[in-house]
Predict the 3D structure of the following.
Amino acid sequence: MPFTFPSHQGLIAPLWRRWPGLFDAPALFIGAAMPDVVDGVAGAFRGHLGQGLGHSLIALPLLCVPGGLALWWLAHIAAQRLPASTRGGFLAHSWNVGLEAVVSTPSPRSGGVKWVKIGLSLGIGAFSHLFFDLISHGHFTWFYPWTTKARLFPDWWHIAWARLPVPGYHAPYPIGPHFLIWLFLGVLGIYMLFAPVYRDEHRRRRGIASSTPRGTTEEDSETMQ
């Protein structure tokens, strides 16, 4: 898989940015993490991690959407209580952007919640996770429990150049062609999520620098503003 966060969220960020009125961004991003959340909880009971029921099509409406709705609710409650960062820099700006994305959408207690949009955003986010895992794994579990592991690609896709033990997993992770796709999608997702935030922060810093009188530090300028 690409990383549960932030890669899966970054890979579907263009949907939210291109059509902001069609999606609830927090629900979309939470849904994109839900297959791993479901299998993470299941892994705590079975004693090891790995794809299973959470990455199946049957779990999408039965577990991923209801579980995502609970996390969406908790995210709104937490966002109302968490403070925005007053520090400068990329990390602080990323935190504030994420916090604002949750606070700016209708909360569960408001009368403006469109539950169909929430459900669809959770479902689309969860399905996107299954899709990107499909093209970055050796096997997939879409039809679990009837078929625990299915193969889509030819034999060369499943070649293992090496096997890497990963803590928490029952078997070593195979390093092969699909691992290169996994790595590419992981890095691409991080870039797609944070590149606009970085550009905004860079422009802000350039604007401060161009308006700062000589002999005045950036911190002094931010204080005056």
Notes: The chain has a mean pLDDT of 85. DSSP finds seven helices and two strands in the chain. Helices lie at 7-18, 25-46, 59-81, 90-103, 115-134, 177-211, 218-224. The chain has one domain: 7-200.
